[in-house]
């Protein structure tokens, strides 16, 4: 997710410096015109630092050197750390307290998780749900609009993560319901593809149905991502 999101920032004219736990993705990013840093601490002077890692523990580990640098030399006032991963509302609030302390109060944290999958990240059509003050959200809006088409401030810090939890609740339960519907239809001798086609024309229509329905009908169970991430989100 992070690589195509960063690529869209480049396309929109942003100067982007990247770090990744594996080097291959950074090489590809540099080939697109981006910059690189050896570690997250190398971003200590940037006005906006965006994290897109699997979970909060990965972010905390990656940011540890950055926090150490800021304890020695605080960043400029108004520095923003954006957590775009799916994390818990209370977890990101605790992380914000760590950032506030380490930065001498000069840096704030915003949670801005996304929905739309890898395709949405590539197309720049993500839904971005942010938890931030109105002033900070306004500063970040041009950056968010380079990566998504539906961008909303949901409330204060933590509200974005709560909105993402609601999103995952709907996506997870809808996916399970579609799987049950496909099984029921096939056991009854009904064509699952025909069922999903007619459902798409009624109140059961959804983006999840558009994506999952054809794959269930074709018995295409190839994974699109680790199940542990959905389990973590829920």
Automatic annotation (TrEMBL):
SUPFAM superfamilies: 6-phosphogluconate dehydrogenase C-terminal domain-like (SSF48179), NAD(P)-binding Rossmann-fold domains (SSF51735). Pfam families: NAD_binding_11, NAD_binding_2. Residues 158-234 form the 3-hydroxyisobutyrate dehydrogenase-like NAD-binding domain. Residues 1-152 form the 6-phosphogluconate dehydrogenase NADP-binding domain. One of its GO terms (molecular function) is NAD binding. This is NAD(P)-dependent oxidoreductase.
């Amino acid at each position: 997710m992070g690589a195509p999101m960063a690529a869209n920032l480049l396309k929109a004219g942003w100067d982007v410096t990247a770090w990744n736990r594996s080097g291959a993705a950074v090489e590809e990013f540099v080939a697109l015109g981006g910059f690189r840093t050896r570690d997250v601490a190398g971003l200590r002077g940037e006005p906006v630092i965006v994290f897109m890692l699997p979970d909060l523990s990965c972010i905390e580990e990656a940011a540890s050197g950055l926090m150490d640098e800021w304890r020695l030399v605080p960043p400029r006032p108004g520095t923003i750390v954006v957590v775009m991963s799916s994390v818990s509302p209370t977890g990101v609030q605790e992380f914000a307290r760590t950032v506030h302390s380490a930065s001498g109060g000069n840096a704030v944290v915003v949670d801005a998780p996304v929905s739309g999958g890898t395709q949405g990240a590539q197309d720049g059509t993500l839904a971005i749900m942010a938890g931030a003050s109105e002033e900070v959200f306004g500063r970040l809006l041009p950056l968010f609009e380079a990566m998504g088409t539906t961008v909303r401030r949901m409330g204060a810090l933590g509200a974005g993560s709560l909105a993402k939890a609601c999103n995952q609740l709907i996506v997870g339960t809808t996916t399970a319901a579609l799987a049950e519907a496909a099984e029921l239809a096939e056991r009854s001798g009904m064509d699952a593809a025909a069922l999903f086609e007619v459902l798409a024309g009624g109140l059961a229509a959804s983006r999840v149905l558009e994506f999952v329905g054809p794959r269930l009908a074709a018995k295409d169970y190839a994974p699109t991502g680790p199940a542990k991430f959905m389990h973590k989100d829920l």
